[in-house]
UniProtKB/TrEMBL annotation:
Name used for this protein in its record: Protein LUTEIN DEFICIENT 5, chloroplastic
Annotated organism of origin: Haematococcus lacustris
Gene3D superfamilies, per the entry: Cytochrome P450
One BP annotation, GO: xanthophyll biosynthetic process
Gene Ontology molecular-function annotations: beta-carotene 3-hydroxylase activity; heme binding; iron ion binding; oxidoreductase activity, acting on paired donors, with incorporation or reduction of molecular oxygen
Source organism phylogeny: Eukaryota, Viridiplantae, Chlorophyta, core chlorophytes, Chlorophyceae
Taxonomic superkingdom: Eukaryota
Amino acid sequence: MSLAQLGRSWRAEAAQRMPEARGDLRELVGQPVFVPLYKLFTVYGKIFRLSFGPKSFVIISDPAYARQILLTNADKYSKGLLSEILEFVMGTGLIPADGEVWRMRRRAIVPALHKKYVANMIVPRQRRCVEALKVVNDTLDGLIAKCKVLVEEEDAEFVEEFLSEADPSILHFLIASGDQISSKQLRDDLMTMLVAGHETTAAVLTWTLYLLSQHPDKTALLQQE
């Protein structure tokens, strides 16, 4: 009993020494929770109490303290209220579980988060990006294969001013140069030029239209032309 009373006394004194922020639940509505927490961190520092009415939470924003709680002395802490709330939904799943149950489930679940499994999930936007990139890659690979056949068939001597009448392209020039370059490297070079060409062209057109909007007399000349 005396040890329990001493512990309560120590916690009360520690709570008084710890900076306290009084929270308003309305601040959490309509924005990610880390936004108001970061603002409080800039005022109160790495450890502070955050009180909402009768409830009080200790907010930790320091890697060393987090390691102490989550790893070094994990057996000294409980997930408490969070575990009680989530147990109804998740039972003894990884998030609400404590102690040995948590360790066992973590060892079982982590391999399922391997990159090759995660790569097969993702969200619709990412899936569309991957599908679009496959279209571009397949197109470039097809162009490279076709161009290699053309270069082999024409059997022309390569000079610095080389230009193929059948296919006057940068790709044809690169293959005809005779450099021992892989199809993948050619694809990477073409992708670089494709992206760079789009971006620079877009920038030029954007500024051209902007400047024309600032100079109506020049716009009129352009319209006449």
